[in-house]
Write a structure and sequence with these properties.
Elements (H helix, E strand, L loop, with lengths): L4 H9 L15 H16 L13 H6 L36 H15 L5 E3 H7 L9 E7 L3 H10 L3 E3 L2 E6 L2 E10 L8 E3 L6 E3 L1 H18 L2 H21 L14 H10 L3 H7 L4 H23 L17 E3 L62
Parallel strand pairs: 2-5
Antiparallel strand pairs: 1-2, 3-4, 4-5, 5-8, 6-7
Length: 389
């Protein structure tokens, strides 16, 4: 269609016309451009689509109801635009246990997705990677820093994986497997991570896994779940025996929770052979005992100062990384799941805990540090028997 340039410029000016009622002004840039294009088409004599015709747009009709003194609400940007949070229907997880080949497939898929993010496979998945065969699993857990938990979901979305609750839906050859996302608030860079024994994934080392199990013991101790405590004790003794076989050089700085007073005191009080197994694994039990006895003496001194109105000088006990471990959905330190090769989830028999539990102020030899010492009896002096003046 031929068009006179002067006529086109006049049409582009869109000079306002006299109207009995002023037309409402669109609020968004997209709607303003649509309104302008419709007027330009009308001035040029072109056909105006019914959707964008002036006076007939549904967008304009919606804005006529807004009061002039009220501003339109700001649009909300939904987080689902970057990565999905939930799936409309319930996820059909695969409930069958995984053998080594299925675990290798899942571990490699996880690593291919998260190799750009600091992560490590933890919990029962890490135990199985180190050779544990007492239980099997149908899902795994990964651990990351708190600052990377959203990045984990974003990288999973780039692979087309859905996010359901606190888990990633990873499709495998036999169905959708569940990968739970867990994170710690601090100290991830201080954990010891190693390459998987049978895949490309990154897993917690045997030492850091032991500290993870110790944090799970404390978590279930507060819940008073004795059945879980017995199962966790079996995992602890399995790790200690494997450490003794491998003659590993254990760094005590990697075991802040395991060598902490709360776990060490309770676990050694429950199991009489615990200190022996720790020593055989290469853990300096004597240094741990001396540290806790010193802490008990400092608490006694601190309490004496407070009783006399003075300020105490004992620093607060520092907790390990795994004691602040959480998942996106709820707090979960060390999840017990899976079945043995022969049937139901059971644990090896463990010795019953003693009736008297460990209390603050009592050292590991059984003597109360806060009680006054009994007076010492003078030793008898042997004198020679002789008649002499």
């Amino acid at each position: 269609m031929s068009l006179n340039p002067i006529q086109f410029l006049k049409a582009c000016c869109c000079l306002p016309q006299r109207r009995s009622k002023p037309s409402p002004r669109p609020s968004s840039p997209i709607r303003r451009s649509e309104h302008y294009n419709s007027r330009l088409r009308a001035n040029l004599g072109w056909e105006v689509p019914e959707r964008s015709a002036p006076g007939h747009s549904s967008h304009l009709e919606t804005h006529t109801t807004t009061a002039p003194d009220q501003s339109s609400p700001r649009p909300r940007i939904r987080s689902e635009g970057r990565f999905p949070i939930k799936i409309s229907s319930e996820v059909q997880w695969v409930k069958t246990s995984m053998d080594r080949e299925r675990l290798k497939e899942l571990y490699n898929l996880v690593h291919a997705t998260l190799e750009h993010v600091p992560y490590a496979i933890c919990g029962l998945g890490a135990l199985i990677d180190h050779g544990f065969t007492g239980r099997k699993t149908n899902r795994i857990s990964i651990l990351c820093p708190q600052t990377s938990k959203n990045a984990v979901k974003s990288w999973a979305a780039t692979r087309g994986y859905k996010i359901y609750g606190d888990s990633i839906c990873v499709p495998t050859k036999d169905g959708i497997r569940r990968v739970r996302i867990k994170y710690i608030e601090f100290g991830f860079e201080q954990l010891q991570c190693v390459k998987s024994d049978f895949s490309n994934a990154t897993v917690l080392s045997l030492t850091s896994t032991l500290d993870n199990i110790a944090a799970g013991h404390l978590d279930n101790l507060r819940r008073r779940d004795e059945r879980a405590l017995i199962m966790i004790a079996g995992d602890v003794f399995w790790v200690l025996k494997l450490m003794a076989q491998r003659h590993e050089n254990i760094d005590s700085r990697l075991l802040p929770t395991f060598l902490g007073e709360e776990f060490f005191a309770d676990f050694t009080a429950r199991h009489s052979n615990a200190r022996r197994e720790m020593a055989l694994a290469g853990i300096d039990v004597g240094a741990a005992l001396a540290k806790h006895r010193t802490a008990a003496a400092l608490r006694e001194h601190d309490q004496l100062l407070r009783d006399h109105g003075l300020k105490g000088d004992v620093a607060d006990t520092q907790v390990g990384q795994f004691e602040n471990m959480k998942s996106i959905g709820n707090k979960s330190v060390y999840t017990l799941h899976g079945r043995e090769a022969g049937g139901e989830l059971t644990a090896p028999p463990m010795p019953q805990p003693p009736e008297q539990s460990y209390a603050r102020g009592i050292n590991f030899s059984g003597r109360n540090l806060t009680a006054s010492k009994p007076p010492r009896k003078p030793k008898s002096i042997e004198r020679p028997v002789a008649d002499w003046v």
